[in-house]
Amino acid sequence: MNETGKEWNHHPELPIRISPLFRWPLRPLEILRWFWDSWFLISERLILVGVAFLSWYWLQPALETSQNFAFGWVAIMWLRNATLMTLAAGGLHLWFFTFTSQGSALKYDPRDLAKGRMFTLGSQTYDNIFWTLTSGVTVWTAYEALMIWAFANGYLTILTFSTNPIWFVAIFFLIPIWESFYFYWIHRWLHWRPLYKLAHHVHHRNSNVGPVDAPG
Predict the structure, then answer these.
(1) Are 33 and 27 a contacting pair, CB within 8 Å?
(2) What percent of the chain has pLDDT over 70?
(3) Which of 66, 78, 92, 114 could anchor a disulfide with 211, C-beta 3.0 to 4.6 Å?
């Protein structure tokens, strides 16, 4: 962003502050307020937990059928995940870019999503849909299928409130810490030249960010 501010449509409040969990000295009241805003109001994390519960109880193949890898139950999980991705990212794309219901408010770049030869399919939108469904959802499902297989065969233990209420509650407060830790290091690794050239460069084609951004 240049000093004249002409290249950006939206300017966030600066300096951008990181989570109070990672600021020193620690401020306990600020940390408690951050956890409250993260979990107990309508937030991204609360919505994701709700989707996870619905998926587990109504859209997840039974553990008894997941003891051995088979195309059937893995394909069901892939279709479920692709549907969730399409509804979430596709719905946001319709809201922000097709119907332009929010105009350019809070958009860093007010222009439409890009088109050009830099994209595999000639369009940022089509590229991102393709890579998200073929690569993103597939890798997501592979990790999930491996975890479900481990649960079904007793290699991992399913954590429930009835068996371990302390850890069940604590995990909700530990997830944001773990999320920040692993995302930082994974992102650092993805910028290592071999991995960047292999996959991550696809993501960086998105100079104008949209709801459906190619994973990488």
Answers:
(1) no
(2) 95
(3) 92
